[in-house]
Design a protein that fits this description.
single chain, alpha+beta
């Protein structure tokens, strides 16, 4: 059995614990903020290096914030 990997990604003003979880039968990224807000991120496609996880989270968060401003 492989060990679960959890990454800590810090962005300006925000930090997330990131891991892959099975959600509705699909592997997806799950992000939990340091304020304990839980977010379901994009589908998991392949293993990533820590730098790639940081880029993935930064892009996801920027998109999420932009969409929230459009509402």
């Amino acid at each position: 059995m492989s060990q679960r990997q959890v990454y800590l990604v810090t962005l300006p003003g925000k930090a997330f614990y990131c891991e892959v979880q099975t959600i509705a039968g699909q592997p997806r990224w799950a992000f939990t903020s340091t304020e304990r807000m839980r977010y379901i991120g994009p589908p998991w496609i392949q293993p990533l290096e820590p730098e790639e996880v940081h880029a993935l989270v930064a892009d996801w968060w920027a998109t999420k914030k932009a969409l929230a401003q459009d509402m």
